[in-house]
Each structure stands twice: as C-alpha cells, then as structure tokens.
Amino acid sequence: MKAFLILEDGNVFEGISIGSTREVISEIVFNTSMTGYLEVLTDPSYAGQAVVMTYPLIGNYGITPDMESERPWVDGYIVRELSRMPSNFRCEGTIGDFLTRHDIPGIAGIDTRALTKILREKGTMNGMITTNENYIIDKIIPQLKAYKTGNVVDKVTCSEKRVLEGKGKKVALLDFGAKKNIAQSLNKRGCQVTIYPAHTKAEEILAENPDGIMLSNGPGDPKECTEIIEEIKKLYASDTPIFAICLGHQLMALANGADTHKMKYGHRGGNHPVKDLKTKRVYISSQNHGYVVDTDTLDEGIAKPAFVNVNDGTNEGLEYIGKKIFTVQFHPEACPGSQDSAYLFDRFMDMMGGTK
In principle, which of 31, 73, 136, 276 could form an S-S bond with 47, CB 3.0–4.6 Å? Predict the structure, then answer.
C-alpha cells in the first residue's frame, strides 16, 4: 500500500506503508544511530515525535528483548529500507509486525537522506503520515503548522510508585519518561531504586530519606513542566545528592533561573562527542534531545558548565556550586550507544558516600 509523508513546508515523500495504516500528525525528527532501533522505538523521550532513521537498512536483527520501556512511544517510523527477513538468535519478530501490533504508522522506501537534509537545513518541522492518495495538501498544511506536542511527560510517566530492590544506597528516581537502563545502571551498583511518578511532591520523596535523587530523561519542551519545576526547587534546597539526565538536566536549570531554547534540529544518535571541561577529555555519547540550556542565562554563583558539545559548542552538563548536584544533557546509561560516560553513575555513588 502506498503511503505519503507530507511536511509543513509542502514537501511530499511517497513510499510504502509499514505498520498501522492510520493517519498521524507529529513532529518529524531524525536519529543517526546505525543500531539500537528497538531502543529508539521504546524510548519515552520520543513521545509526540515521528522518527526518521538515517541509516538506510533498519530491522536486520528483528525485534529482540532490548526494550527501554514496556511499549513503543514514537508516533511514527520512517526508514529507507526495512528488513523483512531478520536474522538473529534472539529475534522475536519483525519491525513491521511490531508496529502493526502497537498501532504505529510508518513509511518505508523514501529517500531518508534527502529528508534529513531538509530537516537539517530548515529545522525540525511537523509532518503527516497518511495512506490517503486523495489528500488535499492545502487543507493539511494548516493542520501541520498548528500541531503542538504539548506536555507529553504526563503521557509517559509511571502511574504509581514502584521499587527495584537492592541492599545498597536508596535512590529516588523521578520518572519523566525514564529509560529502563537508568534504573538498571543504579540497581546493578547495589542501589535500591524507588521510581516515582513525575508529579510526586518533593515532601513525599524527602520524607523517605533517600541517599540520592535521580532526575530522568523525558520528552517535550521543559518549560511545559511548570509544576514539576516547582518541586525540583524544593529538592535543590535539600542537601540530598542529585544526578540528572537530559530533561532532568534542563528542569534543574530552569528551577534555578536559567533559560532553555529549542534547537534547530537537535541531537539524536549514538556518536555525539562531549568534552569534560575539567579534564579536557572527550567522550562519545548517546543523545536524544531537541532543547538545550542557555549557559548565558546561568547564575555563575549557582552553576557552572561541566560538559560541552564538541560539534556545536552547546551545553552538555552543569555542576552546581556548593551542592552535591551535577547534571548532563547526554545519556550515560547509553542503551544503545557508547559506554564511555557510564563512570558518571560511579561519581553519583561517590556523592552518596560510596557503594556500601
């Protein structure tokens, strides 16, 4: 069946429908990872977005148990070529069947290189995936321009508190759309990880006297999370060690008076170089974000830049003055991606007093 990707600038790509045949409007973003497509599909940070995979062949090892959440969160999936006969001893099915089962529309057979160049040159934009060959573009474009992702954190956060048992430090993980590997990275270091819904009050978390607090990744514009930011201000005021990743990093900055802005097309992939400003060492990192902290708006008495993106100079991390708090824009749990920066979890353990 034919499928069409219609962009808000009027560009139309024709391909083949994969997955669900329902129509969807979403923000179109691209990911440069060569592997790890299942982790991309199941990363809650992609809620409200349809993902273009820039690597031309996707799905050659099928669907495996490597999911970052219980279900996929992307609105749509866009690939050049989809492998229909995957080969892997852990394979449990095809991407096409996976998308169909979860009612996610997709499109294959389009020129993803040309599409990505458009998004890089003009910036991230909204688009529609449809199987309707009789579409009227003049009616669709106003709909695309009006689309907003909104506060998608409420969509992806857990509904109730749950605990990963451990005999070591007690860590409170605020779930703004947390990837499983964040909790697992702490748990394998012996931590008892209590995962809280995004809108949990700071008083409830602090009342349980955690050794440390983790602020997770998540989707959408951080400025939409106004109530959460107010609770983070209270967490900041405590003396509890805090480590934050991605959206959590942005929310902590906003809670302390800094500003954020939307990037032209964001950072999404597994090979982004970041520089530690203290050691001058460069690490290869996994990233997925479309917003960034404006370092010019930082109060120098509150926080200082700790990491910077080597490619474009944007902020990749902050260290808070006089506090046991550090935050990073990239993903040290990196699943998929380089494990270069996994040592940051060990740094967090040291802030909490070590592994015992």
Answer: 73
